[in-house]
Amino acid sequence: MQLKKIMNNRYFKSYGGVLLALVGLVILFSFLSPHFLRTNNILTIFNQVSIIAILAFGMTFVLMIGEIDLSVGSTLALSSVILGIALSTGVHPFIAIIFTLGVGILAGLFNGVVSAKLKIPSFIVTVATMGIFRGIGYALTDSRPIPITDSVILKIGNNRFLGAIPNAVIVMIFILIVFHIVLSRTKFGRQAKMVGGNKVAAEYVGVDTKKLQVKIFMISGLAAAVSGILMASRLYSAQPNTASGYELDAIASAVLGGTSLSGGYGTVLGTFIGAVIMGVINNGMNLVGMAYFYQQIVKGLIIIIAVFIDVRNKESILGKK
Amino acid sequence: MQLKKIMNNRYFKSYGGVLLALVGLVILFSFLSPHFLRTNNILTIFNQVSIIAILAFGMTFVLMIGEIDLSVGSTLALSSVILGIALSTGVHPFIAIIFTLGVGILAGLFNGVVSAKLKIPSFIVTVATMGIFRGIGYALTDSRPIPITDSVILKIGNNRFLGAIPNAVIVMIFILIVFHIVLSRTKFGRQAKMVGGNKVAAEYVGVDTKKLQVKIFMISGLAAAVSGILMASRLYSAQPNTASGYELDAIASAVLGGTSLSGGYGTVLGTFIGAVIMGVINNGMNLVGMAYFYQQIVKGLIIIIAVFIDVRNKESILGKK
Amino acid sequence: MNTVLEMKGIRKVFPGVVALDDVNLKLERGKVLALLGENGAGKSTLMKILSGSYQPDDGEIFLYGEKVEIKDVMRAKELGISIIYQELSLCQNLTVAENIFALQEPTRWGLIKDDEIISRTRELFEEFNVDIDPTKMVEELSVSSQQMVEIVKALSLKPKIVIMDEPTSALSKKETETLFEIIEKLQQEGVSIIYISHRMEEIFRITNDVSVLRDGKYIGTVKTADTSSEELIKMMVGRTMDNIYPVKDFKYLRDEKLLEVRGYNKENYFHDINLYVRPGEILGLYGLMGSGRTEIAQGIFGILKKDRGEMFIHDKKVEIKDPFSAIQHKIAFVTEDRKREGLILTASVAENATMANIDKILNKFKLIEDKREAKIAKEHVADLKVKTPSIHQTINKLSGGNQQKVVISKWFEIEPEILILDEPTRGIDVSAKYEIYKLMIELAQKGVGIIMISSELPEILNVSDRLLVINKRQIVTELDPKNTTQEEIMTYIAGRGE
Amino acid sequence: SGDAPQDASTENDTIRIGASLLTQSHPFQVAIKEAMEAEAAGLGVEIDIAIADQDLNRQISAIEDFINKGVDAIILVPVDSDGVMGAIMKAKEANIPVVTVDIKANGVEVDSHIATDNYAGGMIAAEAMAQFLEKAGDVGLITYPEVQSVRDRIDGFKEIADTYEDLNIVIELPGRTREEAVSASEDMLTSNPGLRGIFGFGDDMAIAATTVIGERNSDTIVVGFDGLEEARNSTDADNAFQAVVVQYPDLMGAEGVRNAVSLVRGEAVEKEVPVTPGLYVHGRGFVDVEVINGKVNIGL
Ligand SMILES: Nc1ncnc2c1ncn2[C@@H]1O[C@H](COP(=O)(O)OP(=O)(O)OP(=O)(O)O)[C@@H](O)[C@H]1O
Ligand SMILES: Nc1ncnc2c1ncn2[C@@H]1O[C@H](COP(=O)(O)OP(=O)(O)OP(=O)(O)O)[C@@H](O)[C@H]1O
Ligand SMILES: [Mg+2]
Ligand SMILES: [Mg+2]
Asked: Please, do chains A and C touch (3+ CB pairs < 8 Å)?
């Protein structure tokens, strides 16, 4: 049967459940609000999602090896502060961007080295650096936002490519493609999957798991720095207090998208779908004009239901006891 | 050698590292502030710590079975709102307390049932209920604090037992003892440890892991409700926005105290020591008058160092390859 | 009426696999029934149904003539059915005594009586002649000690029926003897035993009857006394096998030292190890549990850092500091604990098969090419007759023996010059063993030097060209396997004492 | 992207306003919200309220959603004065009038701005503190440096405090919620036993400090900010809480909606509607205050 063939398709197995949840939400909200399905609103959703999604792409790598990075929100804030400071010294925006990305990678390096080499659980390390990085951001700015006026930087987060697609969305899609390929098609990605599945076995076939872990945290830091640049641009200012709590949204996106918290499973594409689900929920509820408390409640329930659909889908395909 | 004997002691193995870190901090701060070691300040620290500590005691059970409860801060807030509402209807404070504890347990029940029976990762379930419970708290109060005037309730969080030890500290110690014994000496606690160590093996022996998980989340909910009562009393009002972010402090306390995030290892007593470390850091830095940003940075660094000492200590005792 | 248990028409289907199809089983009081079959024949699945972890899709179970439903593990326990699982299932984070009394702890005022648990564990150990400290953490025990704990744990419930799923695959000779004594004692007490093993000599030594499964189907039951190993193999495999060991008609290809280790030493792990292997030679390492064979292999492979000693490959001095450099020098190491060290349980058969050499499946853009991966994986599945519905099946869904085949096959991809095999045939059926030996010989023909660690004396004597006996973390002697006997080997070990 | 507003007007005739507020976890902001809802109901207009949770990015998303939805006017309590610029410009591109309340927007002109001058409020608080302490003594501040309006209050406080030589700010501790403020108060009293005054940037902080002082039987006094009912009652009671700077969230919220509606109808509104904070003093109730040329005059 045709349906059965689809159901047994490897890709359907991976993404079927979340996609189902997403489609359900889109149908729901397009009934509830006439504005929901307009092209412009769809683009808005992708634009709104871009920052969390990029964080979540990096997070997918971290979760893949069974670790966690709670510092991404703070790294984002610190990066955007660094960008603001660099620009305010008058350097070329290109240099400022390079410098900012460097700081993000450095933050990841710190997380990676401390967790891998000193053998401290990454949860603890990144809870700690969550405070440390943000504290540095505050200290550098005296907790005041730095206005961003550089037109190149402002274009990144606010203009539209060919007048249609927001630049931030282009950046997100670019990173989506690169990260997806790296995770699913390269040796590095495969090693990450192995480490997440069984660290000892990976070591026995010659994987340097510590080095890998350091690299993976650097990827997460890099993703946070990219998000930081987009954020600073979008906010017309570098805000040291921005993006707090985003780590949980990033993790939730990844898990919604089928990434396992204990490592070994996950795809960047799945994470993207997860992030879009989160974005659709937020946007849809805003369009409907739902009151704030109920938004929180409904969002929570939808997340549970979406994951439930996914779990059920995987079970019904893979069978159970 | 005497020292070696101590080093090989079971209790030293469990607690040696963290205690070392704690002693180091106490020495440091007593040099930095003449007020630090005063009896009254010590009691203040315990009092300040009590709420997080009680949350962390419940969290220790959850972490023991390899799960996580990110909703404790929201459960705390919801419980304290329920207490405020109950009191405002004029019921006897005793009834109000029972009712509040019931709501906390119910919140835990929800987390437990959804995660165990629907097989949704507890991280996702409790990220979702973090929003749901807080949303309910806001909805019930229209996001306004409810003043608490009942003298019985106010005594719980503000008076001192025999004029010396704050009641909140008494409550904390009581729960510490009960929870410690339940986790380390009862069949229930033993089963929790088994599930955390090897879920399949526990199932083979006949442990009903799902039921156990539900119960454990109920314990965490109960602990959150107790904290909620103390909080309402201490603040003279039930605040729906209270305790946000406490889940991370509670988890950090437990991990500092030697509880493993992947389950199977941990004690409530260790968690207590971890919570005290957190309290000492916060209080000490306040006494020194450290600026806010630096507090965040220093706190992060101290957490890393404390866990590092503990990791090293365990390694040097058990020996390594 | 002597029939204790009857299983009738049992059927169990997993996605893509009919694990059991109309299977029958009959167990007599005080008898030992062997359950025989190739890897993936459905033995463990049948036993998991009996012990309540799986529910059958069809079929009935009768206990003492009465129909029973075994809806969960607890129910099986109540009915007096105890099982020793094929895979270790102890809680590593608990002590030995705590594991044995799991869920049976005596309490006072709701608190567990720790002292009583320990003293009663001691009594049990004395009764079964086991020497393990009850207060030790399980994670500190060797695999074989853990298996003994598992056995005692199953017996502590005073069951009427005991299922033993490959109990000896993780046991050393001495402990195997202890187990056989235990089985004899249980039999006298009227306890019935279902015994699963791939070791023929064990079947003939301790069982009364043999039931055979093939591809999930019930083939038949025979009296052990009336049958022969050839007949059983025929029932299992569906054809006759002339030989259990393939013929290797050369000792080595060239008289040169492919790999040589001189004076390798690591305090508390191994002492003054000198050994070499020639191209095409199979060097056997034999010793008792805890004699340090695994550690020597780990030392060679760079997992354990030696404190002294030198290594030469092709007479060139090399420094192996970690598995990566070992692999660079074309050394492969098939470890003994497949779950912990060998498999990525969350990954597919294909991913496991290719993990030792990912470079091989990259295309010119350095990207993983699904087709290459599939090709390699399919070759392995075919060569070793791995029973799996697809190469994309998650590997933890395979039977134990089939998992082991994949663990071995992954190393072929690095095209090793030196292959270390630590208990490579543990849990593998006769025909697959034959395939593995054949593969070893093929590799040897290509000039690979092989070091094989084994606890099975017949195997080591038949397969290796040269034999080193290990005792107390040292090499005690070198023997020619063709001119020695099991007895002679044991004198070297026993002579030195424990 | 400018098609949204036309859609709305063709769909129906009721005026629809979108409001993005700073937070819901603060009674002051709740008061603004409720005043807006009441005023909107009174005027017969629809209002959608989105809460930014002090997250500027979320606020911008809410504004984007308002634009897509085609509201007729937008009211904002900006999370940050500088950062909100981009979103306001988007609204202007879509020809939607924008009104800011409580916190102003920098770098872009809005159609109307209604706010208390937080900086001036901080100055008033410091002046009150100086008067109560007779211009001398150690003072501690409970702060929340991440929030712009709080920074303004603290900066205003410091400006006046600096003019008194013997009035010294000896400690500043974070106290972002009432419970954190309790700990901060305890710790500042422990490390500064001679502390004579505490300024809490909000009602919750002042009340927290008051309870701690009460427990310790200290004679330290408290000056607060916001001045909602609970705080005014506490000021009236016999305790450490001596005075509170009062803002008028209800007036600001209502005025914001009125101006937004006027703008939609094409009526002229005032560009700046300054709301001078008041001062509520123990035993006196509201007193007269005036801020001119960096000087504060209090009718004590
Ligand atoms: N949970 C499961 N999901 C899917 N397939 C399974 C599962 N458990 C077992 N199987 C399949 O059922 C078949 C029988 O497996 P079983 O483990 O019973 O074999 P066995 O006879 O015990 O083999 P071995 O000698 O290797 O232990 C195998 O093909 C296996 O792949
Ligand atoms: N403290 C320990 N913690 C964990 N594992 C241990 C410990 N001590 C010994 N083991 C494991 O127990 C196993 C048996 O010990 P050892 O390696 O010394 O003997 P062996 O000669 O390899 O015997 P065999 O191959 O029969 O197990 C080894 O795999 C070793 O890793
Ligand atoms: Mg089996
Ligand atoms: Mg070994």
From this structure: yes
Write the DSSP symbol of residue D82.
Answer: T
| Ligand 1 pocket, residue C41 CB under 6 Å | yes
pLDDT at residue A32, rounded to an integer: 93
Best of B303, B310, B315, B316 to disrupt the A interface (most A CBs within 10 Å) is: B303
Q: Are A239 and A80 in contact (CB under 8 A)?
A: yes
Please give the pLDDT value at position D10.
Answer: 43
C324: which chain A residues are within 8 Å (Cβ-Cβ)? 206-208
Asked if D48's CB is within 8 angstroms of A145's CB, the reply is: no
Which residue type, as a one-letter code, is found at position C76?
A
pLDDT digits (tens, 9 = 90+) for B167-214: 999 999 999 999 999 999 999 999 999 999 999 999 999 999 999 999
Top CATH class, C3-237 = alpha beta
Using an 8 Å CB-CB cutoff, list chain C residues near A190: 351, 355, 358, 368
Nearest CA in chain D to A135: D146
Tens of pLDDT, residue by residue over A151-174, are 999 999 888 888 789 999 999 999
Closest-CA residue to C88 (of C133, C143, C48, C131): C143
Do residue A130 and residue B300 have CB atoms under 8 angstroms apart? Answer: yes
Q: Which residues of chain D have pLDDT under 70?
A: 1-12
Bridge partners of C37? C213
On whether the CB atoms of residues D149 and D103 are closer than 8 A, the answer is: yes
The answer to whether the beta carbons of residues B160 and B34 sit under 8 Å apart is: no
Q: Which CATH class is domain B35-309?
A: mainly alpha
Query: What is the rounded CA–CA span in Å between residue B43 and residue D175?
Result: 20
DSSP H helices, C254-356, are 293-301, 323-328, 349-354
Confidence of residue A20 (pLDDT cuts 50, 70, 90): confident
Taking 50 as the threshold, does the pLDDT of residue A321 lie above it? no
The residues, ordered by sequence, that sit 6+ positions from A173 with a Cβ below 8 Å of its Cβ are: none
Say if the Cβ atoms of B131 and A248 lie within 8 Å.
no
- Residue owning the nearest CA to atom 16 of ligand 1: C42
Asked if residue B122 lies in contact with residue B133, where contact means CB atoms within 8 angstroms, the answer is no
Q: For ligand 2, atom 16, name the residue with the nearest CA.
A: C290
Q: Residue D126 and residue D161: Cα distance in Å, rounded?
A: 6
Do C3-237 and C259-493 share a fold? yes
Smallest CA-to-CA distance from C18 within C265, C203, C193, C213 is with C213
Chain A (146-175) residues lying within 8 Å, Cβ to Cβ, of chain D: 147, 154, 157-158
Where b means 16+ CB within 10 Å and e means fewer, D260-269 reads bbbbbeeeeb
- Give me the residue from D24, D48, D64 closest to A289, CB to CB: D48
D42 class by beta-carbon count within 10 Å (0-12 exposed, 13-18 middle, 19+ buried): exposed
Give percent above pLDDT 70 in chain B.
93
pLDDT at position C431 is 86
Q: Are strands D73-76 and D278-281 parallel, antiparallel or unpaired?
A: unpaired
Q: Phi/psi of residue C214, each to 5°?
A: -140, 125
Going from N- to C-terminal start, the domains of chain C cover: 3-237, 259-493
- Per the CB < 8 A criterion, the answer to whether A281 and C361 are in contact is no
Q: How is residue D65 written in tokens?
A: 């959603």
Hey, is the C-beta of C346 within 8 angstroms of any chain A C-beta? yes
DSSP assignments along B65-134, one per residue: TT---TTHHHHHHHHHHHHHHHHHTT--HHHHHHHHHHHHHHHHHHHHHHHHHS---HHHHHHHHHHHHH
How far is residue C286's CA from residue C466's CA, in Å, rounded to a whole number? 11
Whether A47 has its CB under 8 Å from any CB of chain D: the answer is: yes
Whole-angstrom Cα distance, residue A136 to residue A133? 5
Confirm or reject CATH 3.40.50.300 for domain C259-493, answering yes or no.
yes
